[in-house]
Amino acid sequence: MTVPSPTPPPPDYPAYDPAAVERRWQGHWRDHGTNQTDLAGATKPFYALMMFPYPSAEGLHVGNLFAFTGNDIYGRFHRMRGHDVFEPFGYDAFGIHSENFAIKVGVHPMELIPRNVANFQRQVERAGLMVDWRQAVNTTDPAYYKWTQWVFLQLYRRGLAFKKEAAVNWCPSCKTVLANEQVEHGHCERCGTAVELRQLAQWFFRISDYAERLLDNLATLDWSETTRTAQRNWIGRSEGAELVFSVTDMQADAGSAGVAVTTEMAIEEDRIRVFTTRPDTVFGATFLVLAPEHSMIDAITTLEQRAAVDAYRDQARKQDLVTRKTEREKTGVFTGAYAVNPATEQLVPVWVADYVLMEYGTGAIMAVPGHDQRDFEFARTFDLPVVRVVVREGEHAAAPVGDAAIVDTDGGRVCNSGRFDGLAVGEAKREVTAWLHGRGTGRPVVNFRLHDWCISRQRYWGPPIPIIYCDACGAQPVPEQDLPVTLPNIADFKPDDSGVSPLARHAEWFHVPCPECGRPGRRETDVSDTFLDSAWYFLRYPSATRADLAFDKAMTAKWLPVTSYIGGNEHAVLHLLYSRFITMVFKDAGLIDFEEPFTRFRAHGTIIREGAKMSKSKGNVVNPDAYFDEWGADAFRTYLMFLGPYEEGGDFRDRGISGVKRFLDRLWSSVHECTRDGTPDEGVMRKLHATIKKVGDDTPALAYNTAIAAMMEYMNALRSGERTVHRAEVEPLVQLVAPYAPHIAEALWERLGHGTSVFDGGWPAYDASRLAGDTWECVVQVQGKTRGKVTLATGASQEAAVAAAMAEPSIAKFVTGPAKKVIYVPGRLLNLVV
RNA sequence: GCGGACGUGGCGGAAUUGGCAGACGCGCGGGACUUAGGAUCCCGUACUUCACGGUGUGGGGGUUCGAGUCCCCCCGUCCGCACCA
After folding, report:
1. Distance in angstroms, CA of A221 to C1' of B28?
2. Which terminus has fewer CB within 10 Å in chain A: N or C?
3. Which nucleotide is the nearest neighbour of A229, by CA and C1'?
C-alpha cells in the first residue's frame, strides 16, 4: 500500500511549547485555587497520601518525583471520577540527615531547612502536582512539633512511654544512639560505621503490647503482599512454652550431673525461665545457656567459675554488635551451676554463651543439641551430651544423632521421652506443655520478636521530649498548655561523645521549674526519633491550619483512614508499623474511631539509571530541573511512568523520553488540526472505546506503563496514514492523558472550547457494545500449532468456524485426517486435533 | 541459612492469567518531503531458511488439544531478615 505524502501546509497554530504551557497553567491553577480541596464541604472524600520527603539540600530527586507523580496520577484520576481528592504535601525535615549535612556545610539547620523546603516546593510545583499547599506541614515547625510532643504525652499518660536503661547501639561516628532497626548488619544505617554497645537511659514506647493486634489486623488491610509479609516477619510471632529450670544449691551438688533430684530441692529464687518453641524436646535438654547479660548469672556462678565467667561477660560487653552477631564460632563458659530439667528431673549444667540473645525471649534457653543446630555445635565444642528425642520414619530411637542436629522433624515422633514416646511432634508439643503446666514448671507462651520502640535520640535536631525532672517529684510531663517545648536556636548543636544531647549544655533552656512543685527542675535533653514525627502526620494534614488542636475530630472522621497511601518499600516495616501503633493507641484513647490508618497501601518501585542505582558517587543522578527545561514536566512525568511497572520501578534512559515527547507533540497537533465535519471513523471509534476501557482499568491499578502504551497505540491508529482526525476521536483522549500530563491536557481542553478545568470535566465513559465489531479474527491451530487465521462473524458456530478454516488451503494442508477433537473458544481460537 | 520477588529481542518492557510471544517506546534499517535534518511522516525490525517451513520466553523434565503463564528439579540475579531458641 502506498501512502500519499502530500506536503503539509504550514500549521496555522502555535507549536507545542511545554515551558509556556506549563507556566501558564501552573499560574492559572494557583490563581483559581484549582488544586484546593473543599475539606469541610466534600461529599466524596478521597485522601490520596504519599510519603512526605526529607527535603535534602540537593533538591528533588527523580526517585521522589517518580513516587509523587504516581500518586498525583492516582489522585487526579479519582478526581476526574468524581471524588473530592485531597493530595497534601509536607516535609519530614528533622533528624540526623539534616543535622549531619548542616554540620558538614557549617550552616545551622534552622537556616538550611527553610532554604531546602523552598527549593523543594518550587520543584514540586514545576512538576505539576495537584497539591493543596494550604494544608502543608513541616515537622520542624513548632506549630507541628508542638503536637508531636502532645502525641508523646498521650502515650506517657497511658503508661505506654517509659524510660529504661538498656544496652543500646552507639554509633561512634554519628555520636548517637541508634534503634536496633537502624542498624544494618552491625553497621550504622546512615554512615556505615561499626556500631558499639553503650548503656543509656532511654525513652521507649511499649509497642510490644500491641504486637498481637498489629499482626492480626494485617489480614484485613489492602496492602501489597510483600509489605504485609515484611511486617509479619518483623513482628515475628512464635508459639511455644516458657519452662522453668530450678537451679540447685550449687555448692552441695557441684559436679553431680546426672543425679536425679526432686524439684523441692531447688531454691525458689533461682528459677531460670527459658522460652522454647520445641517443648516436645525437653527430655533432650542436656544443658542451659544464659545470655551474657542475664541477671541471674552472678547469683548462680560458683566460686571456682567466677573468674572465668566474669572474664567472658566482660569480653562480651566490650564486643561490638558486628563481631558478636557475625562471629558464629561457638564460645561460652560454664557457671558451675546446675539446674533441674523439669521433665527428666536430671541435673543439667548451666552455661553462659553469647549465641543466646538477651533481647529475645527470656534471655535463656534450654539447649537441645540433638535437634537444634546451634546447640549441637555448642555441645560438640564443649563436649556436652547429645540425646536423640525424635525419630523420623525408619530411624531408631537408640541411633546416635550423628554429625548434625536433626532439625527437620516435621513428620517425626518423640522418643526417649518417657510416657510421651511415640507421640507425633506436634501432639507432643501440646501434651508436654500441658503436663509441665500441671506440675507448675511450664506454661504455653506466645513470643514476639518485636521489641519496644526506642524514641530517644541524644541529638539536637528533633523535638525535645516534653519531660521535666525534679529531685522531689521525679519525672514530670510538661503540661499541655506549656507546649511546645521549643527547640532553642543554639550555635553549638554538634553532638559530642558524652552521650548527652547538646541541649544539656544550654543552662537557660535546661533549667526550668518543676511543673508539679515549682522547685528547680531540669529538662529532658533527649529529642525524639523522626519516626515519631511521621507516625502521625497523616492525621495532621486535614487539620494543618488548626492552631488549637492536633487534629479536629469531625475533620478526621471525614477524611480518615487514608484512602490510598503510596510510598517506598524501605518504610514497609518501621514507618508503617509505628503509624499503625500510634493510630491504635489513639483509638484506645478515644481520640479517633478507627485503628488502622491506611486502608490501602502500595509500594512504588525504584528508578535506576542505565542499569545502576543512582548515586552521587556514580555521577548518574538525574536533576529534574534540567529535564523540565528540556522536555517539559508533562513529558518528564509521563516518561517516568512509562519506563516500567510503577510498583517495580524502571531503568531511566535519557533517549527514551523522546518517544513520550513525540506522543505529546502528536496529541497537540491532532487537537489543533481536528475537524468537526463529517462523522468519526467507526474503526477508530471502536479503538477509542477500547482505549478508554484500558486506561480506565489500568490507571487505578497503577499499571501506568501499559495505560500510556495504550494511549500511544490509539494515537497511532488516530493518525495512521496521515488521516484527518475528527474532534470526537481526539477529545476523550485529552481527558485520558490529563492525569499523566496535566498541563497540556488543560491547554488542549481549553482549545476544544471548554471553559472549566479538564479535571472537573469528568472521565469519559466507554460503550461496551462498541468494543467488539461484527467480526473477529479467529486463530486457527492444528495440533496446537498456529497455522493461520480466519475472519468469523461474531457469534459464529463451531461448525462455521471449522468450515471457514478448512476453506483456507494454507490451513487445510496441515489437516491430515478427520478431526479427533475440536477446541473452539469463541473470540479466541480454533484448535483442530487430528 | 531462612523468607520474598524475578529471569522474555540490541535495550526498557507487553502478553486479557492456560489461547497469535515480543504490544508500546528506544535503538537500528529502508523510504517520502527536504538546501539541510538530531524536525515531520510512512514502511520494516526475535532467530533461521531462496522458499515451504523450522526454532524460540535462564537450563532440564512433566501436565495439557495448547505452557512465558501450572507442577518438579537445577542454574542465575535482586531485595528483606539473619545465632529469634
Report:
1. 48
2. N
3. B4
